[in-house]
Write the structure tokens for this entry.
Amino acid sequence: MGATTKLVMLPYESHGYVAKESLLHMLWEMNQWLDKYVRSESASAGESKAD
């Protein structure tokens, strides 16, 4: 569908995350992805509307 994605596979985890470290890492990865692809795109869109 043309969307940008990222696959993160953590050791000793299957479909769901159990270890606290895995949960924290997954949340960090999600935050990094959102900052890069959502926040930067919405900031760019806001700048173009102001012009």
